[in-house]
Amino acid sequence: MKTLPINVVIEGLPVLVVGGEFEAHEKVEKLLRYGADITVLAPALNDELTSLAEAGHIRHLAETYTPAHLKGYRLVYVGDLCKDKREQIREDTRELGVLFNAVDMPGLCDFIMPASIQGKNFALSICTGGKAAGLSRQLREQLESAIHQEDEILEVLDQIRTIFKRKYDTFGQRRDRLWAILEELEAIEKANDATVKP
Which domains does the chain have, with CATH numbers? Predict the structure, then answer.
């Protein structure tokens, strides 16, 4: 299954999570890190979700799903419900243009939650099309240890970008000047390497 890699700003976005057990809790924890406005729809919640609801981090609707529950939401996650219910919810979301995700059923999903590395200034996602979440997680852990300095580099690049936007009118001019600088730096680095070699 091919997926389009996009990064969505969900801070304050209304998100509905259907189900109140472990799978739903996993999704809620991830969504909370990105500031989503989360409602959990389930007759009952597990202890972890109950604690989040009592602390005011999520809203809980102690009801059984009906299509009316989808009104006002942009993303819908379905956790621990039977397959038939998931398929019905998917059909309902399609009619309303709401994006749908069913845990561990990539064939039903409009989008997939990748393993991700979130820095201060960047995000890196790894997706295996829902076929090997464990591999995505393993690759994420390997990459996390390799790119811990990238946030600092991005701060510098953002400052350079701001200067370039003031100095050069078009994207093409900015790109050409940046490549020229990078080529000059590469030449300096090669010259330095040559002088230190015996």
Answer: 14-113 (3.40.50.720), 150-196 (no CATH)
Sole residue written with tokens 């994420």: 140
Please tell me the distance from the alpha carbon of residue 1 to that of residue 129, in angstroms, as a whole number.
6
Radius of gyration of the chain measured on its C-alpha atoms? 23
Dist CA 50 CA 58 (whole Å): 9
Closest CA to 105 of 78, 125, 139, 126: 78
Task: Return the amino acid letter for 137.
Answer: R
Q: How far is it, in rounded angstroms, from Cα 40 to Cα 60?
A: 5
Q: Tokens for 96?
A: 């309303």
pLDDT at position 25: 93
The whole-number pLDDT of residue 75 equals: 96
Q: In terms of C-beta density within 10 A (0-12 exposed, 13-18 middle, 19 or more buried), how is residue 150 classed?
A: middle
pLDDT digits (tens, 9 = 90+) for 99-152: 999 987 888 899 988 777 777 766 777 776 656 666 666 776 766 666 666 656
Strand, helix or coil for residue 16:
strand
pLDDT at 59: 97
Torsion of CA 101, 107, 110, 113, to 10 degrees: 50
Contact 38, 15 (CB under 8 A): yes
User: Torsions phi, psi of 75, nearest 5?
Assistant: -130, 140
pLDDT beneath 50, residues of the chain: none
